[in-house]
């Protein structure tokens, strides 16, 4: 009787140079989203109207950010 050879899984190597641009982009988008959810209101507002504040109002309460 012969024994079947078991395949040893080889980990896939992903070069850092391929991941780094995507990681930077996702990090930047996350910081922009955090700004709009957390501080886009009042004196620190980038936009004059309160449209963004009202659009994200329920999300702020869901994430426990005080807004009024």
TrEMBL record:
Q: Which domain of life is it from?
A: Bacteria
What are the alphabetically sorted keywords of the record? Membrane, Transmembrane, Transmembrane helix
Question: Could you confirm whether the keyword Transmembrane helix appears in this record?
Answer: yes
Give the transmembrane ranges.
Answer: 19-37
Pfam family membership, one: CbtB
- What name appears for this protein in its UniProt entry? CbtB-domain containing protein
């Amino acid at each position: 009787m012969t024994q079947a050879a078991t395949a040893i899984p080889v980990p896939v190597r992903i070069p850092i140079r391929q991941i780094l641009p995507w990681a930077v982009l996702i990090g930047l988008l996350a910081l922009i989203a955090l700004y709009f959810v957390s501080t886009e209101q009042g004196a620190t507002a980038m936009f004059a109207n309160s449209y963004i504040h009202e659009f994200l109002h329920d999300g702020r309460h869901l994430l426990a950010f005080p807004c009024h």
